TrEMBL record:
Official protein name in the record: Thymosin beta-a-like
Compartments in which it is found: Cytoplasm, Cytoskeleton
Transmembrane spans: none
Biased composition (Basic and acidic residues): 32-57
InterPro entries: Beta-thymosin, Beta-thymosin_sf
A GO term, aspect molecular function: actin monomer binding
Tagged with keyword RNA-binding: no
Keyword field contains Cytoplasm: yes
Family: Belongs to the thymosin beta family.
Keyword terms of this UniProt record: Actin-binding, Cytoplasm, Cytoskeleton
SMART domains according to UniProt: THY
Phylogenetic classification of the source organism: Eukaryota, Metazoa, Chordata, Craniata, Vertebrata
GO terms for biological process, alphabetical: actin filament organization; regulation of cell migration
A single GO cellular-component term on record: cytoplasm
Length: 57
């Protein structure tokens, strides 16, 4: 069970501010993100509507 330190409570903002100023971004690992669910374009939607219209006739 993880319990936060007393200094990291919301009511005690000064230590959190100190931790943020001392944070070293250089220790973070570089990540590459890739879009998995690409939204359809206007043309894609029009094409799908056209296909649906032909299939129901």
């Amino acid at each position: 069970v993880f319990l936060p330190k007393k200094s990291s409570t919301m009511s005690d903002a000064l230590p959190v501010t100190e931790e943020l100023t001392q944070f070293n971004k250089g220790k973070l690992k570089k990540t590459n993100t890739k879009e998995k669910n690409i939204l359809p374009t206007k043309d894609d939607i029009a094409q799908e509507k056209k296909e649906k219209g032909q299939g129901s006739s």
